[in-house]
Design goal:
This protein has 3 domains: 29-371, Alkaline Phosphatase, subunit A, CATH 3.40.720; 374-442, Arylsulfatase, C-terminal domain; 467-534, EF-hand (Recoverin, domain 1, Orthogonal Bundle), CATH 1.10.238. The protein is built from 16 helices and 18 strands. The chain has helices at residues 55-63, 77-86, 102-107, 121-127, 176-186, 209-214, 220-246, 304-307, 335-342, 359-362, 428-442, 456-459, 474-490, 500-507, 513-520, 530-534, and strands spanning 19-20, 30-36, 65-67, 70-71, 131-137, 158-162, 192-197, 252-258, 311-314, 323-325, 330-331, 345-346, 373-376, 390-394, 397-401, 408-412, 497-498, 528-529. The radius of gyration is 23 Å and the shape is globular.
Length: 539
């Protein structure tokens, strides 16, 4: 299909220099993209949360437009951020899960970092004369990866990050808004593009003492999460304050969003953090009580709870204040073309992004999307919310399907935002059309990893992936059913997942239980799905 040309090296077409349309330096807006982490659609008081309070985000919503149909392009961090950076679906770069240590990336057939030749919104703005900076979380590689490019390779003039490569110094989590404020003050007389990528509300939870004290009247579980959200909201407030102090708020586009839906709430046993992603001790997944706002699913799910997130835009004098856009299907890949249009930047003639220029929507005009939206997911695959591996939205319709398209679900999002009613049997013609569209798109994605995006030092010591035999070996015929039976036996509440408590009880005093559980738990969500248990990594 001409719609999806197969590209052996999909990033090599970004070659031409950008040009600037008619716009004077004074009229070119500054742009600040605040990207939170695991912040659910319902985790705003302006979205109706019963006990969380987000006064600074509420201010942003009052002074700008709240887009209620904004989607990221993956339900976890790294691929979601790739889409926002490049304006392209992350699977075009082989990125379909988060960047982990190189050995795990190898097992997933993933690169170890985003290709530096990929289109980059920062590089485009830099070439157009903007000062560029990135503060906060990076995760376009992994902290255990040697030889990973730094943000400067993608077009950032300044950076202070955490979860960058092994050789990149890690910035303090809570320093992100202060670093952003200093940058704003230093560049108030020139146009700038600034990423402020917050840690909140990702694990480990590391709330400040002041925020914990603020919510001391809540129970233990709610108190920690409320404190984390307060820290994130205060970071937004710090950025808005810096703009006011610099006198440039009127000429600055401020965007707030999140990389995916809320994290799964872990059992009470996981009060302490098991996630060293931020190199900080903190609270564990028990306190992850984020809200999807009534949407189905959560982080790691292709249902809306995993990929529909907050999206607030303030552009004084351009974007309507206090408005809610219920109709425009806006996505992360639309950010690059839309923001470039806002800045008067003409994209290179050979740029082939996946997004649309939705600048008219920022101005409050009704805009109907013309291009389909695609999702590809290779991680957690359990019922009830994580089974889809592919999804496509075209117009009002969204189809979710397994990789072989043998299981599907069809939802009309404009009348069923909670994806509660499966209309697949009522509309077989729509199912057939969208299935063909999704599989045709999937067929264009790369199946091998570009060698230039591999950490040679790390992978040289990693074991090669085991070959896949044409037929199961004799031991596998015995072991797999045995493990399947063991999973069924231990899954006492029959939810398709093993909690640490269920696993411990099922092992009946075996040695090294905690370390074995962690080895099985490849996606680090604190639970084991059937696939992780029956076919553990390295088997």
């Amino acid at each position: 299909m001409k719609l999806f040309p197969r590209l052996a090296h999909p990033v090599l077409f970004f070659l031409s220099a950008v040009t600037i349309a008619a716009a004077t330096p004074a009229s070119r807006p500054n742009i600040i993209f605040i990207f939170a982490d695991d912040w659910g659609w319902g985790d705003l008081s302006s979205h109706g949360h019963p006990w969380l309070k987000t006064p600074h985000l509420d201010r942003l919503a009052r002074e700008g437009t709240d887009f209620h149909q904004f989607n990221v392009l993956n339900p976890v961090c790294s691929p979601s951020r790739t889409a926002a950076m490049t304006g392209m679906f992350p699977s075009r770069f082989g990125i379909s899960q988060h960047f982990a240590a190189p050995a795990q990336n190898l097992a997933r057939n993933m690169p170890d970092w985003l290709d530096v030749r990929a289109p980059s919104i920062a590089r485009i703005f830099q070439q157009a004369g903007y000062r560029t900076a990135h503060f906060g979380k990076w995760h376009l590689t992994n902290r255990n990866t040697h030889g990973a490019p730094e943000p400067t390779a993608y077009g950032f003039d300044e950076f202070a990050i955490f979860n960058g490569g092994a050789e990149t110094a890690s910035a303090d989590l809570h320093a992100t808004p202060d670093n952003a404020a200093k940058f704003i003050a230093a560049n108030k007389d020139r146009p700038f593009y600034l990423n402020v990528w917050l840690h909140e509300s990702h694990l480990p939870h590391v709330p400040t003492k002041a925020s914990l004290e603020k919510w001391s009247h809540l129970d233990e579980q709610k108190r920690v999460y409320a404190a984390v959200i307060t820290d994130g909201d205060n970071a937004v407030g710090r950025v808005l304050e810096a703009l006011d102090s610099a006198g440039i708020a009127q000429n600055t586009i401020v965007i707030f969003s999140s990389d995916n839906g809320p994290e799964t709430t872990a059992p009470a046993a996981q009060r302490e953090s098991r996630d060293n992603d931020a190199k900080a001790a903190g609270y564990g997944g028990y306190y992850s009580v984020g809200s999807s706002g009534g949407l189905r699913g959560e982080k790691r799910s292709l249902f809306e709870g995993g990929v529909r997130v907050p999206f607030l835009v303030r552009w004084p004098g351009r974007t309507p204040a206090g408005a809610i856009n219920h109709t425009t299907a806006f996505t992360a890949v639309d950010l690059l073309p839309t923001l470039c249009a806002a800045a008067g930047i003409t994209l290179p003639s050979d740029y082939r992004g996946d997004g649309e220029n939705l600048l008219a929507a920022l101005a409050g005009q009704p805009v109907k999307r013309t291009r389909p939206i695609f999702w590809d997911w290779t991680g957690k695959a359990a019922d009830p919310h994580w089974w889809p591996r592919l999804a496509v939205r075209d117009g009002d319709w969204k189809l979710l399907l397994t990789a072989d398209a043998q299981r599907v679900a069809l939802h009309r999002l404009t009348t069923d935002r909670a994806e509660a009613v499966d209309l697949a049997k009522d509309h077989p013609e729509i199912v057939a059309r969208l299935t063909q569209l999704a599989l045709a798109w999937k067929a264009t994605l790369p199946t091998t990893v570009d060698p230039s995006c591999i950490s040679v030092a790390d992978r040289a010591a990693a074991p090669a992936p085991l070959p896949v035999p044409a037929a199961p070996l004799a031991p596998a015929k015995k072991t797999t059913p045995d493990r399947a039976a063991a999973f069924t036996r231990m899954d006492t509440n029959r939810d398709g997942l093993l909690t640490p408590d269920e696993y411990v009880a099922g092992q009946k005093g075996a040695a090294n239980i905690e370390s074995r559980f962690k080895n099985f738990d490849q996606n680090g969500d604190g639970k084991l799905n059937r696939e992780e248990f029956i076919t553990p990594s390295g088997r």
